[in-house]
Amino acid sequence: MDSTMIKINRKKYDSHPDVQRLINAAPRWDGEGKFNWRIEIEGRGFHLRKKLLPVLLEMTKKHCAFCDYYPLSEELINPIPIEHFFPKSKNKFPEKAYEWRNLFPSCNGCTSKKKDRFDEQLLKPDEEDYSFDTFFEVSGDGKLMPSKIADSKSKERAKVTIEIYGLNKRGILLSERKKHLRDYLRIAPIDDIDNRPYRFLIENIKEPFNPDDVINRFFQ
Fold it and tell me: DSSP assignment of 28-97, as one string?
């Protein structure tokens, strides 16, 4: 599994009836007033969040599309955000507010860090040529870093993505990555990786391994 961001295959879900309704209706928002998840399609109410959140969560196996936190679980006081990759605000990309390919399930941490920011170099989780190893590596105390072997453009894209989503500025992310790497080292073989957070760490564990060697390699 290659991701801090999950490699999303949307084509598999394009035929879902609710996704098709949204694509065919092609609703637009002008950026005025308060954004409404409830829209009208074919003369009937269509609650975008309620209809599409289950589809998005199935695509990401209940992981955050950006930091790979798991599991995203619905709570009344803290509902799972649907992130607009291209911000929907009036001065940004309001025309993309209801676009299927602009919607991603996210944790509250990534959504609150990104807010309304955007950069053309920001990595999109469903890009066909995306892979963790192309852009990132893990080093230091649980930090994500641009890959040393990447070209300059890829390094800059990784840097922008790390900064906008605050992937190294949230202390809990750093401590959890360290904890889960150590947990993974105690599990051999590692199975059901879709039911674990921060799956990109698992890819860095090659058997046979010595837990202390691996921990020292990544967490100096």
Answer: ---S-SS--SEEEETTEEEEHHHHHHHHHHHHHTT--TTT--S-----SSSPPPEEESS--STTS-GGGT
